[in-house]
Specification:
By secondary structure, the chain is α+β, with helices and mostly antiparallel strands. It is about 55% helix and about 15% strand. The chain contains 12 helices and 10 strands. It starts with a helix and ends in an 11-residue tail after the last helix. InterPro entries: 7TMR_DISM_rcpt_extracell_dom1.
């Protein structure tokens, strides 16, 4: 660790000797990195291999977001009207953020969804909309139109933040496919996932996602209950903030993935999106307060503590505003909340450097834990900007990072309590009386 000490400055001997003696600094970074690779990069590689086959005539999974044209309208359009106005749709590579009370997407080449070998599932993303409709017009003239209202998701949702529209498999094949959102509160650019999957592939992917979400939710719930029990017995404040963080991330993962509909079938699309926004802000806010109280006493100067608290509350306020903002202000709310997170991260990075230079032991656990959701966030941002493909694995990477963060911070809490116990014992042996707990 001497090279890192030399780069960041400070007193090298103190930190270098501490890391060598305790032997946890490098493993604290490597262990979560390996876990993150196993749970995200490896499945991504497998998925990429599977998607490589999708370029053949036997494709069973087709990402459609880059294959659709879009149209904004102030009035509701029916299949016959959509066919008549198909020339008004704006198609790639032109980028246009369509707006209007209603948004419609047209698959440019319906022939990509070949007939035979089972029915196709059109998978569209949850958004703040009153209704979502898929209309398929077959070459023999048959029209299949399916509508999901925002408050009736029972049986029409799929893990991965999808609405599921299973289309009958007819030998005639598809002539037109339209996906529409009515009374929508977002621009078309905020609808990032529209896919098509054959029945067998759809069921296989759903089983994988259920298994992964169950594992990650179980980790979050287990570490929360464990530390809540410790908090009831020991009463350290950072344990309470940790439990609030884990609960918020559990709510975020469950709402973002749509898995909460499995337990509350009547949950609406708007409620899912709002829960995801508010819980993400609450998780960021609670984790920041946890970080402040988790570090050793006197490690951070008062100005950085005040800045962290103010920005954490700002993130919570702005994400809540973005969740409940009227249709005309949703984009502004989304951008303001994203900007507040970036400012908060700048203060967090500053606090990390200050604590590291001060010889903090606890900061290593926080750094190892927080690097995972940061990587997941970068992957999702890259996905949203088009640098990476639209895959469920990338979307799930943030959930993976949050669950592993909670697990690593739970280990860090155990280590922190051991340090406090040793300091208390040392204080008593030196005749100092009962040790006053710190960091809580």
């Amino acid at each position: 660790m001497n090279w890192a000490v030399g780069v960041l400055g400070g007193t090298p001997s103190r930190r270098a000797v501490q890391c060598r003696a305790e032997g946890f600094c490098l493993p604290a970074i490597l262990i979560p990195a390996v876990l993150f690779l196993v749970l995200t990069v490896l499945p991504t590689g497998l998925t990429t291999g599977a998607h490589a086959a999708d370029t053949t005539d036997d494709a069973d999974f087709i990402p459609l977001r880059g294959e659709v044209c879009e149209l904004g309208s102030e009035t509701r359009l029916f299949p016959e009207q959509l066919i008549a106005r198909r020339g008004d749709f704006v198609c790639p590579p032109e980028r246009w953020a369509s707006t209007g009370r209603h948004l419609y997407f047209r698959v440019r080449d319906p022939g990509l969804l070949r007939p035979g070998s089972g029915r196709w599932h059109i998978l569209s993303e949850f958004v703040r909309a009153e209704k979502a409709t898929v209309s398929a017009i077959y070459n023999d003239g048959h029209i299949e139109s399916q509508t999901v209202t925002g408050g009736a998701l029972r049986g029409r949702w799929a893990a991965g933040n999808y609405l599921d529209f299973p289309l009958p498999d007819r030998s005639a094949g598809f002539a037109h496919i339209f996906i529409g959102y009515e009374n929508v509160a977002v621009q078309s650019g905020m609808i990032r996932k529209i896919n098509a999957a054959r029945e067998e592939r759809f069921l296989s992917d759903q089983r994988m996602l259920f298994l992964l979400y169950g594992l990650l939710s179980g980790i979050l719930f287990a570490v929360c209950v464990y530390n809540l029990a410790l908090y009831a017995y020991i009463g350290m404040r950072f344990q309470l903030y940790y439990c609030l963080t884990a609960l918020a991330f559990l709510a975020h993962g469950s709402s973002w993935s749509g898995i909460i509909v499995y337990f509350i079938p009547d949950y609406s699309m708007a409620s899912l999106v709002r829960t995801a926004f508010v819980s993400s802000g609450a998780g960021v806010c609670a984790s920041t307060f946890f970080f402040i109280h988790f570090l050793e006493d006197g490690m951070l100067p008062p100005w950085i503590v005040r800045s962290l608290k103010v920005m954490a509350l700002a993130v919570l306020s702005l994400t809540s505003f973005a969740a409940f903002a009227p249709a005309g202000l949703t984009i502004l709310g989304d951008r303001l909340s994203s900007a507040s997170v970036l400012v908060l991260m700048a203060f967090v990075l500053t606090a990390f450097v200050i604590a590291w230079r001060g010889g903090s032991r606890a900061v290593w656990f926080a750094a190892a834990a927080w690097i995972l959701p940061i990587i997941g966030g970068i992957l999702r941002a890259s996905r949203g900007s088009g640098l990476l493909p639209q895959t469920d694995i990338i979307d799930t990477s943030l959930f993976v990072g949050l669950a592993l963060e909670a697990l690593l911070l739970s280990i860090g809490i155990s280590d922190r309590l051991n340090v406090l116990r040793r300091e208390e014992t040392a204080g008593r042996s030196n005749g100092g009386g009962p040790y006053r707990r710190r960091g809580g």
